[in-house]
Amino acid sequence: MGNLADKQIIVGVTGGIAAYKTAELVRQLRRAGAQVRVVMTAAAQAFVTPLSFQALSGHRVYCDMLDTEHESAMGHIELARWAHCLLIAPASADFIARIAHGHANDLLSTLCLATPADLFIAPAMNQQMWRNAAVQDNIDILKKRNLRILGPAEGEQACGDTGPGRMQEPFELLEALSLASASESPLQDCKVLITAGPTQEPIDPVRFISNRSSGKMGYALAQAMRDRGAQVVLVSGPVSRPPPPGIDVIAVRTAEEMYQAVIQALAGVNIFIGSAAVADYTPAQQYAEKIKKNGSVLELDLRPTKDILGSVATSAAPPFTVGFAAETTQLEKYARGKLENKQIDMIAANQVGTGRGGFYSDENSLLVIWKGGSQVFAMQNKVSLAQRLADLIVERYDEHKISGSL
């Protein structure tokens, strides 16, 4: 389940004020490429309308056990079989009690009994209710049945109390689903090294040469490879993004620092993904003090930076090496040239400067090329794109292992 792209997930919503967070969770699941169906209890509909979840999931919301439109085909059984995973968020104390004791008096509780999918519970209730012995006994029952309990978190609650009982935040639940079955991944024993973001080449203490890279694609790729069970090391240039959970991040600033960090971390790496927009040139001289404007022309002497991608690909025991190319013209021509010149295994190329996708955007499209093949990924959000690219990298990496290239 590490890869959420195209995973079929039922999100069950029970009665509780935390249901408003579930709307954001559904949105994030879809951004991650998952197919989502929402099932609501009657109590849940008092907090958030089915129409809201319909808009966010892109599908009808299931509320009634006896739906005459679908019950002729045993719709609830069909839905139970459809799911790869069922997450109940929020899970109220009442609903936890009902599934602990095998009740099936509404659609959601029936699905919990009828589905072979993995079940996840995200409790949400008052802190005193959570501490109640009856609730804890029910939680213990569910744990013994291998249902996975996510949270609850501690903090201020809607009732004014403070303590355990808050539903985990949507991003935490998303991370939990992504990590749940990473052990099933073919990358479980792999080490993946990724570069992301721009570099900054200093001119003086206040100025530098850089580019428009935001690091979004590299960070999304790092999380996608982590979700497939890999040990991920991310060498990141300066970006305004938090470190992804479960990933070792090495922060660098210049192209030289990125080069040194990559070379030092290269031992034992199985897959290298160079998604960083590394500066091609750096000032030959860095001024110790701020350069003052005096009306004359300022000339900078620039020298080429070290070739990180080429150095990795031609190292003594090179990993499976994936490069990136951002081009403004002749995308395929320049990408194929880079693939051959740097002796890498795969290259992901994207068009920039067209008004959609590319730097800063949440969307992108890619032309991926390798020796003997290629694939086009249409414009989509970068989280989903990273998941699909990760699948392709794993596929090509496996083929290289089989063929003995690695």
Shape by Cα distribution = elongated
Report the top-level CATH class of the largest domain. Answer: Alpha Beta
Reported CATH architecture of the largest domain: 3-Layer(aba) Sandwich
The percent range for helix content is: 25-40%
Query: Which structural class should the secondary elements be placed in?
Result: alpha/beta
Low-confidence stretches: none
* Overall mean pLDDT: 88
How many beta-strand runs? 19
Question: How many strands, what sense, and barrel or not for the largest sheet?
Answer: 8 strands, mixed
* CA distance, first residue to last residue: 27 Å
Strand order across the biggest sheet?
A: 12-11-8-13-16-17-18-19
What does this structure look like?
- The chain is α/β, with parallel strands linked by helices.
- The chain folds into two domains: 172 residues, Flavin prenyltransferase-like (Rossmann fold, 3-Layer(aba) Sandwich); 214 residues, Rossmann fold (3-Layer(aba) Sandwich), CATH 3.40.50.10300.
- Helices cover 33% and strands 25% of the residues.
- The protein contains 13 helices and 19 strands.
- An eight-stranded mixed sheet has the order 12-11-8-13-16-17-18-19, with helices on both faces. A five-stranded parallel sheet has the order 2-1-3-4-5, with helices on both faces.
- A hairpin with a 5-residue loop joins strand 6 and strand 7.
- The protein starts with 7 loop residues before the first strand and ends with a helix.
